From TrEMBL:
Signal peptide: none
This protein's record includes keyword Heme: no
Pfam family, one: Methyltransf_12
Organism annotation: Cyanobacterium stanieri (strain ATCC 29140 / PCC 7202)
The name this protein goes by in its record: Methyltransferase type 11
Length: 397
């Protein structure tokens, strides 16, 4: 076990990940998965009440996620941990250089730490972010269980792990490189050199080369990315069935995929009859159907877990909705305009009444304006308000 952990540590000390450049300014835009209010709203259907947050970046790497966590949660207590000392050193440099800490009123600590021992961490966390980490642990079940035990009662656990169907060619190349490395396995620079030479010589008809070119070549210009992909000493890849087995070991409840739109069967099936049949399937079977029909795009799964019983407010009760107080989702670009980018950077065009609703929602929350107040001023409907909620444009308090 600890041999595998040491090999993973050596990889990320040789090639700290991600190799995002260190900037002299804060990172661009936003990432709603790391904005607690926005992520909570996505999962629970309403704005969180909790103000004093504790956040764990579990396997922070070189700190690209940590930097957004700092930027988006300016009063939070943030702990960022990793086993790679070189990745941690870069993460610290990143945050110092970009200046995000200048306006930060919370606490940030970086710590070299093995996530297998997460139960030893003090207290509980409202948001645990673990992107691209659990699938590299010697036993991911030990990792997910230890972290699940550290989730606060109303907390959210955001996870990213690999999908086997979309990584099929990667796996073949990993094995080819390993065969050629022989007893030099574990020399990651040698592995990268072999991999690059192999790609340079493969015929155009090679499926492995085609996949590399169409999907990965841009990011793999950086050796750190190439190494992370092709010479990793330890990687678990999941399919929907093994993913849900894995999730179930955590004792937590699956909330949703954070790329929710991808997991809509209507994207792939147009026949009414087949859609009707698909609607008879369990949620997990429907997800399985989606990945069977669109395998090459399932390179990973990104999703939220929460402590049971998880409840998501859907605002179907008219009275409840009339009394709620809307606010704008902080993750959008282009407000105050009718054409803007939503939380996923997708272009949105608002109708006149939607725009008017959002203008009311953008007022200072201390004014306590309810949906009922707004609908007495704006010619709109509760269903239009629901549509804005579902599209993550407004959050209800
Ligand atoms: C692919 S990188 C992801 C980094 C970052 N989360 C991101 O998404 O950009 C995986 C990171 O997990 C860390 N890691 C792997 N196993 C770990 C463990 N048992 N405990 C702590 N960190 C670990 C590695 O050192 C590496 O920095």
């Amino acid at each position: 076990m600890s041999e595998i952990k040491n090999a993973v540590q050596k990889l990320y000390n040789t090639y700290p990940f991600p190799p995002d450049p260190l900037l002299d300014e804060p990172p661009p835009g936003y990432n709603w998965r790391w904005h607690y209010q926005s992520a909570y709203n996505f999962c629970k259907g309403k704005k969180p009440q909790k103000k004093q947050l504790r956040i764990l970046d579990a396997g922070c790497g070189t700190g690209s996620s940590t930097e957004y966590l700092v930027l988006h949660n300016p009063t939070a207590d943030i702990l960022a941990v990793d086993i790679s000392e070189n990745a941690l050193a870069t993460a610290q440099k990143r945050l110092q250089k970009s200046g995000v800490l200048n306006d930060f009123q919370g606490n940030i600590e970086f710590r070299q730490f093995n996530l297998e021992n997460s139960r030893e961490l003090d207290g509980y966390f409202d948001l645990i972010n673990s992107v691209g980490v659990l699938h590299h642990m010697p036993n991911p079940v030990i990792g997910i269980q230890a972290l699940a035990d550290k989730l606060a009662d109303d907390g959210l656990f955001h996870i990213f792990v690999y999908g086997e169907l979309g990584r099929w060619e990667i796996l073949l190349m990993q094995r080819a490189i390993a065969l050629l490395q022989g007893d030099k396995i574990g020399d990651y620079r040698d592995g990268v050199a072999i991999g690059r030479e192999l790609f340079a010589g493969l015929p155009e008809s090679s499926r492995i080369l085609q996949r590399e070119k169409e999907r990965w070549a841009l990011e793999n210009q950086r050796d750190e990315c190439f190494a992370d992909m092709y010479v990793h000493p330890n990687e678990f890849d999941y399919n929907i069935d093994t993913l849900f087995e894995f999730i179930n070991t955590s004792g937590l409840e699956f909330v949703d995929f954070s790329n929710r739109d991808f997991w809509q069967i209507e994207r792939l099936i147009k026949s009414e009859d087949l859609l009707q049949r698909a609607s008879q399937l369990s949620t997990q079977e429907r997800y399985r159907l989606i990945e069977l029909l669109d395998p090459s795009n399932v390179t990973h799964y990104e999703f939220f877990l929460a402590k049971p019983p998880h409840h998501r407010e859907t605002w179907q009760d008219d009275q409840l909705l009339l009394e709620a107080k809307p606010e704008l989702n902080p993750c959008m670009l282009g407000w105050e305009s009718k054409s803007l980018l939503d939380y996923n950077y997708q272009p949105i065009n608002l109708s006149d009444s939607e725009f008017a609703l959002m203008q009311w929602a953008s007022q200072n929350p201390s004014q306590n304006v309810t949906v009922k107040d707004i609908l007495s001023q704006v010619n709109s409907t509760l269903d239009e308000v629901r549509s804005l909620i579902n599209r993550q444009l407004i959050m209800m308090a």
